[in-house]
Amino acid sequence: MRIGVDVGGTFTDVVGIVDGRVVTAKLPSTPEQSEGVLAAIERLGVNGPDIEAFAHGTTVATNALLERKGARTALITTDGFRDVIEIGRQNRPSLYDLTANRPPPLVERDLRFTVAERCGPEGVIEPLGETALEGVLQKLEQSEPDAVAVCLLFGYLHPEHERAVAAAVRTRFPHLHVSVSHEVLAEFREFERFSTTVADAYLGPRLATYLENLARRCDRERVPRPVVMQSSGGVMDLERATSSAAACVLSGPAAGVVGASHVAGLSGFADVLTFDMGGTSTDVAPIVDGRAERTTEGAIGGVPLKLPMVDVHTVGAGGGSIAWIDDGGALRAGPRSAGANPGPACYGRGGREPTVSDANLVLGYLAEGAKLGGEITLDRELSLKALESITEPMSLDVVDAAQGIVRVANAEMVRALRVVSVERGLDPREFALIAFGGAGPLHACALAEELDMPTVIIPQAGGVLSALGLALSEMRADYVQPLLASTHELETTWLDEALESMISRAENELGPGASLERAADLRYVGQSFELTVPAGDLAAMTSAFHDAHERRFGYRMEDEPVETVGVRLTATTPIELPDLSDSPSALEESGETRAANFDGEWDQTPVLQRTMMGPGTKVEGPCIVEFAEATAVIRPGWAGAVDHVGTLVVSR
To answer: Which stretches within 298-439 are classed as H helix?
Structure first.
């Protein structure tokens, strides 16, 4: 048995795969995530010793970064560069907003210390000053940080000084978490390198404490210690995760993309946009030719993280997103969320503010009295009462208010889908939309209509697809090494030498049987950004770069010289993937209907139970399909059927 447990802001999902058969469970998240993880495994009804592998997606690092609840962190850097993490870049998220402020840096200025040393591109310019280093160690002792980030100029090329500083800190303060830039991110651009290393130090103690606590609980229950999902879409062992906190920031969303890619591929769809709507947020990502698109230019909570990650875009629109009226009298939904506790008003846990889930319940898309996670019963009267905070100020009736909330949330999610498609040079009309998460299938058809997408895919395990992605994930390690040279001057031996040094590291960490994928970062000479293409023959690399540049930016310059900036290696340990075939099941027409509102008109809408639908079962909108952990709304004008792997595929 392989299991995956994904902890979200509202629910904890668990999936087990036994001989190709998928078993699932969902329950509300707990404040202490490790308690919820073991409770989810218990809910699945399996014995710890029967579990072969356990993969875990956690929001501990994400929440600590967003809420600024990480470790008290100090920074040691080169003389004159203590403010790099605060100065940042000239780009601004709101160019014309004169009152906008950047998020404060993760390290306060009085915790940024400098040492006398200097390296340049060619090597050491000024040796490391022992006296200055001793002075920094004394200041660390006085300031009592929980973590230290070591980031020296040109440390990615010449790490000798960084190693010496880190060794001195670890010797003097063995209890401190120490992150060193050439170990975290061996790339140029000091702001991004410093920022990523600082984030790694800031998150390290919090994530390590959580994972160690979870490991102890697993040992007591005789459950295997978990492997942890990385932002890049693969898992790593517990030891590497505790020392690579910044690599786990997109742990949960990355798992969803992995699961979506596998399920869509089984149904014959290679080009899809993923749409993962949970209780707190919505994550979207592109999958092209069956492969999840990845990037190294992410930012979470205003903090740049230049690490390999699935190209996920997140917006604060989920089932628990709170509806409110702004100062201009406009209706808004999110980004503030009711979370798991108290949750939406309809949960009956004390929530009083209207949410997207309350609106869906009022419109009849969700069933009065439905049970979520086995512990929550939906109450429509509580939703109606909560919506009064919208209906009274705006002089709307309750149905109009509910429709407005859903439309506002949909608009936010459509913008997110445009970011990962249109703004990436991808035409959404050529893609299918795969909807998952507890709330995704409720909104999928409406979003597809807005983007003129022809097909919506709803997996059988859509409500827990991120957990399924965890159970399907392979061990993965990513490496990078700088290599700045024009492709006309670059010698194949240079490329091979850079790759060989990373291959030896991969074999030490993952073993000699790992599958290797080589890539290079290229750009036109003079550009300040790069695109990653497969590494190999120099002419093929250059041609692939021109193609990638045209797809991303709409033009190519074949007469301009191209240069490499870095070389990358991805090592993975493949696993045997289940076929997830669905067992035949005849649809028993129950004749159940529910009043639901579509485009302002109430209609007695057929309600189908997914458990009673087998391959070939057809659906025609308007109808509602209730899955074990989610509900799908099939709008008027849409129709489709369940395919051979149990995925509901509908087209307009």
So the answer is: 356-362, 380-386, 388-394, 398-420
